[in-house]
Amino acid sequence: MQIATGTTSHRSIHTATKQIINDVIGNINGTPDFMIAAYTPNYREKRSYEEALAKICEETGTNNIIGGTFPAVATSNDTPTTQGCSLIAFKSSELDIQPPVSYSNIRINPDRGADKLIKLFKENKKKNKTGFFLTPGPNFPPDAFEGMKMLDMRFAHMFRGMFNQVGKLINRNMGKNGHGVTSFAYKILKKLLDSGVRNTLGGATIDLDMLSCFQFQGNNIFSNGMVGTTFSSDKLDFGHSWTFDKSNRSKTFEISKGLKSSGYVHTINNKPSKEEFLNVIDIPADIYEEAFKGTAYASLLYLSTLKSKDQGNLPFVSVCHPSLDGVIATIPEEILDESDRIAEFCTQSGIGVQKSAYQCANSAAQGIDNPVFGLFINCSNRLLIAGDKTEEENRMIGEALGPDVPFMTLYSGGEFSLINHKPVYAAVSVHGMVGGYSKSPQKNVVF
Amino acid sequence: MSSKMGINSELQDLTHLDEVEASILFRIDGNVVDSSFKEEYSHKLLRTIQWCKANVDKVSLEMKSSNLNKVTYELNDFCVIFYVVDNLTILTTISTKNANISLLSIESKRKALLIANHM
User: Fold this and answer.
1) Which ipTM value was assigned to this complex?
2) B109 interface with A at CB cutoff 8 Å
3) Is A7 inside a domain boundary?
């Protein structure tokens, strides 16, 4: 089995691509079976990514590649970068990775995307199998909040009974314009679950400047697409896990009223949510704005966790924008419906982020005696907490997997998993998948 | 690629990032080994660079004595990140004050390691 990884950085996407092909494909003897390519979003132009992917396909001789744009990318054998790309390439007779599928309009119609993944699972007759898919993430064009301000002011206050209609309007508008949250991914997870899929790992592409995000499949570049495949084997097993930094828990609060279909929370503790949100985290509005205006108003140090009936405590990002009276939270309404609506605030720390990454990798590798590769979807919010300690975080993942086990970490705008028939849709978390031998392969002995 | 070209290319990579105005490789005595700037730069930026040049010896002494790898300052509407490259040189990245320092320090650290390989 040959699995090679690498990370390169350069101001020019062409140079970074050329270098990654030399570094990674040079280590694979012949044409790889499958690759995952992750680029940082600073190259901006769709055309740049098209040319880069075309170059990789041409040089490797295969179109079996998926990937996307992420604010930072890392692999086991290199320092993380925010200006470059990471690549993992697989070539193995024991690991079967199916030719990838894509669906170009996943925000509007997640069911169609899920169907394509389900078909891959059904076609696959191997003993052990798992899925891997990437979607678009939150994406706010510069005028997005202006439009929403009008909706908030005109409708939400004057016509309280119309909350659900307004929520649908906001959500439809978000989908149409390519921005909003990733709650459609929860629908994909549910559909996979209903079709009997046991394990899957997924993540959302994102640009922290909220300008654009792309997903790749072969030479195709999507901005609102889903790309995915399945990993399967009769010899290798796949372990999954997820976690978040839950080391410091603080106040609890009640989500009193949330708008259906929008992820828009109007009241917390029966008070206007913007006011109460700042009250609960004990930060004056001006300091909150100053601290978070460069990061789309996401609450970085604070994250809210909601106790779901089926999934336990799930962490979510909450956005409190000055032009809105409410709070936008990345909680799908299905989860809100199935929870007791009592949420908790946690504080994140650099050390907590590192420890939780180790826990995730360690737990995913449990039951696997000899890990051979790992894939990790890690929240970009955690990236901002870790900063230049991101390298340390990945070193700890490496420590959990064992020496020389290749792995790739993508810093995403949403993390999702199916783990032993349980969907986990959460933000501010790290999700991992580890492939390896459950029992070390034994040589045939001839007497 | 020669060592000098390699170092200059890494510095150019940094200044190519949207928020970065200049990247300078200083010797700890304040002499400039190499540098890269955005095409247009302001007097305010030059004043900040002068401050860096005048203070890099003190900063490096402090970093050495306290075993620090990175130090950041905010001044004149800019943010300055000092990263240790080796015993004799320090990488200085000057960005706009609204830059995301967490993200920028990831790339500064990577570039400091790559520059150390070129030395």
Assistant:
1) 0.84
2) yes
3) yes
What's the CATH number where B31 sits? 3.30.450.30
Nearest to A364 by CA among A312, A421, A431, A437: A431
Residue among A10, A42, A387 minimizing CB distance to B102: A387
Query: Do A281 and A223 share a structural domain?
Result: no
Closest CB to B106: pick one of A42, A294, A388: A388
Measured distance CA(A408)–CA(A78) in Å, rounded: 10
**Residue of chain A whose alpha carbon sits nearest to that of B112:** A79
Count of domains observed in chain B: 1
- B109: nearest CB among A11, A384, A388: A388
Q: Which residue from B minimizes the CA distance to A81?
A: B107
Residues of A in contact with B18 (CB under 8 A): 42
Chain B interface mutation, best of A83, A206, A409, highest count of B Cβ atoms under 10 Å: A83
Tell whether A71 and A196 lie within a shared domain.
yes
With contacts defined as CB-CB under 8 Å, which chain A residues touch B70? 388
Whether pLDDT at A101 is above 90: yes
pTM beyond 0.80 = yes
Interface contact B108-A388, CB threshold 8 A: yes
Domain span holding position B44: 3-118
Query: Do residue A396 and residue A263 come from a single domain?
Result: no
Highest mean pLDDT (candidates A132-136, A183-187, A327-331): A132-136
Q: What is the 3-state secondary structure (H, E, C) of B59-110?
A: HHHHHHHHCCCEEEEEECCEEEEEEECCCCEEEEEEEECCCCHHHHHHHHHH
- In a domain, residue A167? The reply is no
Beta-sheet strands, E only, within A246-404? 248-259, 264-268, 271-272, 302-308, 312-316, 318-319, 327-329, 339-347, 370-379
Residue A396 and residue A252 in one domain? no
pLDDT of residue B116: 93
> Taking CA atoms, what residue in A is nearest to B13?
A11
